[in-house]
Design a protein that fits this description.
Elements: E1 31-33, E2 42-44, H1 55-64, E3 68-71, E4 77-82, H2 88-97, H3 100-107, H4 114-121, E5 127-133, E6 139-148, E7 151-158, H5 167-181, E8 186-191, H6 196-203, E9 209-214, E10 217-223
Parallel strand pairs: 7-8
Antiparallel strand pairs: 1-2, 3-4, 4-5, 5-6, 6-7, 8-10, 9-10
Length: 238
């Protein structure tokens, strides 16, 4: 869902993508998709999920897909769970509650036509998605892990009223666990230097980080240690 870091094409959610950055079309065929932030059309082609490793990592993969509780310091109990196509309406509603600033930091520009891209982001063929939900079922935060050849891209959006409660950090930790379980050793997030919350959360992943400024964006690459389980997130973060 993003653009090549070596090419000149500007796509919807950040200007350049690391490899050929081919976004899988829903039907497995090449397709023309509009840019979510006002850029040109881009080609979408099939992009396979990585091969899973052997049995020991499969248990980690199952753990990454479990429903779990996220306890906030004030006693609020939230749920962290896998997200999918059935969550599209709730995800759109959450986007509607987010400020222009939050959306700009997530998508790197004014957001339009989010519904079409949520169809892709929430499709398990292209990666993994996780949601944090309130006791009443409202979706408060959404995280994605998108396959990119031998790597994967991380992206997180947290509703403004629920930022600085550790939701983004909890999503990043679970998503990196899913990447590790799928045999992915390198994950990266693309943001802006102004996104201090995401930068701080990435620093708390207990993984070596590489920071690189590219065409107005900041690419943060994390090298994951095989077999290292992430610590639970219980303190404020992204």
């Amino acid at each position: 869902m993003t653009a090549s870091r070596t090419g000149s094409e500007r796509l919807w959610h950040r200007p350049f993508r690391r490899s050929d950055r081919r976004c899988a079309a829903p039907d497995g065929q090449a397709a023309r998709l509009p840019a979510l932030t006002g850029g040109p059309y881009r080609q979408a082609r099939p992009h396979p999920a990585p091969a899973r490793p052997d049995t020991p990592a499969r248990s980690s993969a199952q753990a990454a897909e479990e429903v779990s509780r996220l306890s906030l310091p004030d006693g609020t109990e939230l749920q962290l769970r896998p997200a999918g196509p059935a969550d599209k309406a709730a995800a759109l509603a959450m986007h509607g509650r987010c400020s222009p600033t939050a959306l700009r930091l997530r998508y790197h520009g004014p957001v339009r036509d989010a519904g079409r891209y949520l169809d892709h982001l929430l499709d398990a063929r292209h990666g993994r998605s996780l949601a944090v939900t309130a006791p009443d079922g409202r979706l408060l935060a959404l995280g994605h892990l998108m396959w990119d050849d031998g790597e994967a891209e991380l992206a997180v959006l947290v509703e403004d009223a629920w930022q600085r409660h550790g939701l983004g950090l909890a999503l990043l930790r679970r998503l990196t666990a899913a990447a590790r379980a799928a045999g992915i050793g390198t994950v990266y997030a693309v943001t802006q230097a102004a996104n201090a919350a995401l930068i701080a959360a990435m620093r708390r992943l207990a993984a070596p980080l590489d920071f690189r400024a590219e065409d107005g964006t900041l690419v943060i690459t994390a090298t994951l240690a095989a077999g290292t389980a992430p610590a639970p997130a219980r303190t404020p973060g992204c």
